[in-house]
């Protein structure tokens, strides 16, 4: 469209006829005009155009270059729109800009295709990606966006624009749940409600029926809840409790009540980490057909008494403890953290309630710390312990947990400080403290031995100087005697005496950390051998250069 029309037509009303006088630079004489102009056309003269505005309507701009526009004929339902790799079912017809009637692509059934596979022109797919369920629209696609399509091959290629009338029948949600194709959910039947607000995303009791297949064994059914569950009852389980395979639970969390979906999963997210049914071989990929019957949301604590709140907290904590024993540490941590979030809105009224509440909260923070220790995230474990010690510096169990994490990251001084503090507070678990201190001495000696081994020959001493090894041995003897004189306390809970695995990686960390921590504790002779000797050599070199320059000038 020429610029003169773009400026004049928006000032007109529906049905209006007007004359537009347009200067050359605003019609075909415009240097930026990209249209074709026939020979002999007076493009360098002022022209008069008679324009009748028959109709106009609002459109949504889909592409930045205005090559794809959408006119909504009927608003849709909900807010979910399709995207790759979703599938859609639509009624679809088309026409050119000069035709009045639309030509249907399929007379007897909706058009079904997957997004992102090049099955329809790129501009049409771009417009459909903005539609919601039951929406009806006209999508205007210019020539530049009419790419080749495997399912639509009979469109004219000599037109500047094609208009598609589209009615969205169904959005078939297809989700890659882990991002690498190992777990893919495909919606088969729509559910009730709006996604994702009405999904059991967290802290719910879910009731499902499901059927398991082996896709590489001719679809062998290895489980059917309607046949194998007693009485054909639904399978009932709580979210994030590790009671069903991970891929299956990920799928159910994104379903609506009444929805039916299929889930394809590799063995990693199916039965590698879960008890395998008898018919499922080790390492087998599986597929489930799942129906979410309904679900119950977690209790709302706002209307409960203090005792009811604590009872529900104990119930959730017990689930976390079970998951911890099953070595599902991230799931256990999520349960403890959920209670702590809810505790932010709990206000004890009496002194007894306050005492009970604080004890429960402290224990949850320490349980979170234990989970972090098990997954070797000792920095986060220390932070969790600090949340207790900031309020109660004399909490022995928190001191022990923090001390063990300091030990794991080779911060021996901080670990020993925590163990010393425990001794002052409580002397009833002296034997456990001695065990921790013995472990500290062993780790410290290993770290220093590794440091000497790693840097052996790098910092050799001159005769008569105190060697690095001698000084290390002196420090070790002093540290050992100091630690031996300490009597410190470990909480009497049996789980506290279980140290999280440190492994070779932690020992290497201890090596570097402790070595440089004690760098400036080395004797002066050692430091001088490292820093001053190269400096003397540099000075000597400069003097020699200066003498040579002086001789050359002379």
From TrEMBL:
Keywords: Isomerase, Membrane, Repeat, Rotamase, TPR repeat, Transmembrane, Transmembrane helix. This is peptidylprolyl isomerase. The keyword Membrane applies. One of its GO terms (molecular function) is peptidyl-prolyl cis-trans isomerase activity. InterPro entries: FKBP4/5/8-like, PPIase_dom_sf, PPIase_FKBP_dom, TPR-like_helical_dom_sf, TPR_rpt. Pfam families: FKBP_C. SMART domains: TPR. Residues 1-57, 203-296 form the PPIase FKBP-type domain. It catalyses: [protein]-peptidylproline (omega=180) = [protein]-peptidylproline (omega=0).
């Amino acid at each position: 469209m020429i610029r003169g029309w773009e400026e004049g037509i928006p000032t007109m009303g529906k049905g209006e006829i007007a004359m537009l006088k347009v200067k050359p630079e605003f019609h075909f004489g415009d240097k930026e005009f990209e249209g074709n102009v026939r020979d002999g056309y007076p493009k360098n003269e002022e022209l008069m155009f008679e324009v009748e505005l028959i109709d106009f309507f609002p459109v949504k701009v889909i592409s930045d270059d205005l090559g794809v526009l959408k006119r909504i004929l009927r608003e849709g339902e909900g807010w979910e729109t399709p995207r790759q790799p979703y599938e859609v079912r639509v009624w679809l017809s088309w026409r050119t800009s000069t035709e009045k009637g639309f030509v249907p692509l399929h007379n007897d059934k909706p058009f079904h295709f997957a997004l992102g596979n090049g099955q329809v022109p790129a501009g049409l797919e771009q417009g459909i990606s903005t539609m919601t369920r039951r929406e009806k629209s006209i999508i205007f696609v210019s020539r530049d966006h009419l790419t080749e399509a495997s399912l639509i091959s009979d469109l004219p290629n000599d037109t500047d624009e094609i208009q598609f009338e589209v009615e969205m029948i169904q959005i078939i949600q297809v989700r890659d749940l882990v991002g690498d194709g190992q777990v893919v959910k495909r919606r088969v039947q729509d559910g009730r409600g709006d996604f994702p607000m009405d999904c059991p995303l967290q802290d719910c009791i879910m009731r499902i029926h499901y059927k398991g297949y082996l896709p590489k064994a001719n679809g062998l059914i290895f489980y059917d809840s309607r046949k194998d569950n007693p009485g054909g009852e639904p399978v009932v389980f709580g979210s994030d409790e590790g009671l069903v395979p991970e891929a299956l639970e990920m799928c159910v969390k994104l379903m609506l009540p009444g929805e039916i979906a299929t889930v394809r999963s590799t063995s990693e997210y199916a039965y590698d980490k879960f008890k395998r049914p008898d018919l499922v071989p080790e390492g087998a990929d599986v597929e489930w057909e799942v129906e979410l019957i309904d679900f119950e949301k977690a209790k709302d604590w706002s209307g409960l008494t203090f005792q009811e709140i604590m009872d529900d907290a104990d119930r959730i904590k017990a689930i976390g403890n079970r998951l911890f024993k099953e070595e599902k540490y991230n799931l256990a941590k999520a349960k403890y953290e959920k209670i702590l979030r809810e505790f932010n809105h709990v206000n004890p009224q009496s002194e007894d309630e306050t005492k009970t509440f604080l004890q429960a909260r402290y224990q949850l923070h320490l349980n979170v710390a234990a989970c972090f220790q098990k997954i070797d995230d000792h920095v986060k474990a220390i932070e969790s312990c600090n949340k207790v010690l900031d309020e109660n510096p004399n909490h022995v169990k928190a001191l022990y947990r923090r001390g063990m994490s300091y030990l794991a990251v080779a911060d021996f001084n901080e670990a020993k400080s925590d163990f010393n503090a425990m001794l002052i507070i409580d002397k009833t678990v002296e034997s456990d403290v001695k065990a921790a201190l013995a472990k500290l001495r062993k780790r410290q000696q290993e770290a220093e031995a590794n440091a000497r081994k790693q840097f052996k020959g790098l910092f050799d001493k001159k005769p008569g100087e105190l060697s690095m090894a001698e000084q290390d041995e002196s420090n070790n003897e002093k540290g050992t005697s100091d630690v031996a004189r300490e009597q410190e306390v470990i909480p009497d809970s049996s789980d506290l005496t279980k140290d999280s695995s440190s492994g070779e990686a932690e020992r290497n960390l201890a090596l570097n950390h402790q070595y440089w921590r004690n760098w400036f504790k080395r004797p002066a002779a050692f430091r001088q051998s490292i820093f001053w000797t190269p400096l003397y050599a540099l000075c000597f070199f400069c003097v020699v250069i200066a003498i040579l320059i002086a001789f050359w000038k002379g």
